[in-house]
Write a structure and sequence with these properties.
The chain is of the alpha/beta class. It is 32% helix and 17% strand.
């Protein structure tokens, strides 16, 4: 089965490229997909021998605008601007940074909200189910377009870390250094359960319309907001929530004896839900969460995770956070043990933090120091200094 490319429904600033025109993208589902559009941003300059390229992979609700001064949708800074930029840890004066919007996304890459040229209508649920492997194979086509044989580094947190590991498993000869952060080699049963709650919230919204809400001129805003609220709780920690909110009331002298948002934490979650639906597509949320659920590098090796990395010469730095209960340190240690068993060059670091899973996006000096040291050491080994 071959599926033609969609056409973008709106123009966004940045770069878009049509890939898979002659050589289709073969999805894990068996579908030959293409041509398709991949949206991306680049920062810095590619050196003469194309040895200084770093691919930054975004998390579930992230995008390609990793280091922009102003995000075109939210108006805020790029989601990792504290780390990526001139003179920063991922230094755009030294390295050529590439960040793509994953296939199935909703900020310029081919996804379920784009137009299916066979029908002239949005793909909706006719869009093929995708995997982390599909996302990475699409990225390799962009890297090929740049003529880059080997990436200096692939770096990402959460779902971005899954992409990092997929790169290292599938294309070890193309990755010199890898930093999978706050992630795992598989999605746990608990995380799959939370994702299913979120998907059911979206699909239970009457405005979802069986996935055809764009045709109906509607948006399942309530369901998507609840999905975001549920997921956002998993990105935080109880100490961080208590420190920030405790049981403080929201702009009132006492409880109202109603179901209004009496507590500050309730108001915060509602705000997170509302702001999310303004920038994200509901069907993309279904597809990308499903891609994470399917991720398990050990499956094709009958549970022997070390075999996924056997013979790899990639330098690894596995980073976790002590209060992350979404992707625990125990999961990172299992990954590190497998890498050790495969005789890989690996360091594994747990950062003490009470900020939960989202710590990799926040101001964590110890994390920044570890990542900086790893990149500098890898750059020296690569001969980039």
């Amino acid at each position: 089965m071959s599926i033609p490319a969609p056409v973008s429904r709106r123009a966004l600033p940045g770069h878009q490229i049509v890939l898979g025109d002659r050589d289709k993208l073969r999805l894990d589902s068996g579908i030959e997909f293409g041509p398709f559009t991949l949206a991306y941003q680049t920062y810095g300059e590619l050196n003469a021998d194309k040895s200084n390229a770093i691919l930054v992979c975004h998390a579930l609700t992230g995008d390609q605008y990793v280091a922009d001064d102003v995000h075109p949708i939210t108006g805020k800074e790029g989601w990792w601007r504290a780390i990526v930029g001139p003179g920063k840890i991922i230094d755009t004066e030294k390295y050529f940074i590439i960040c793509t919007n994953v296939i199935g996304g909703c900020l310029g890459s081919t996804g379920p909200k784009e137009i299916n040229p066979e029908t002239g209508k949005p793909w909706g649920l006719d869009f093929p189910v995708i995997t982390i492997g599909d996302m990475v194979r699409a990225q390799t086509m962009l890297i090929d377009h740049f003529g880059i044989d080997s990436l200096f580094a692939v770096i990402g947190g959460s779902m971005g870390g899954m992409q990092v590991l997929e790169w290292c498993k599938s294309y070890p000869e193309r990755v010199f250094a890898a930093a999978p952060i706050a992630t795992s080699y598989r999605h746990s049963a608990q995380n799959i359960a939370f994702h299913e709650v979120g998907r059911q919230a979206v699909m239970a919204d009457p405005d979802w319309c069986g996935g055809n809400y764009l045709l109906e001129g509607k948006k399942p805003a309530r369901g998507l907001a609840v999905a975001r609220m549920t997921a956002h709780i998993t990105y935080l920690s109880e100490p961080a929530l208590h420190r920030k909110f405790g049981r403080k009331l929201q702009n009132r002298g006492g409880i109202t004896y109603s179901f209004d948002h009496d507590f500050q934490v309730e108001s915060y979650l509602r705000h997170q839900g509302k702001s999310f639906v303004d920038r994200f597509d509901a069907n993309s949320y279904l597809y990308i969460t499903r891609a994470m659920d399917y991720f398990d590098l050990s499956v094709e090796f009958d549970g022997r995770l070390a075999e996924a990395f056997r013979g790899s010469n990639t330098r690894f730095c596995v980073i976790s956070f002590s209060s992350d209960w979404c992707f625990t340190t125990a999961e990172s240690r299992r990954l590190a043990h497998a890498l050790n068993a495969a005789s890989c060059n690996v360091s594994c670091v747990e950062i003490e933090s009470d900020k939960g899973h989202d710590a990799f996006l926040l101001d964590e000096p110890d994390f920044h120091m570890v990542l900086s040291g790893f990149i500098e050491g890898a750059a020296e080994a690569r001969g980039l200094k």
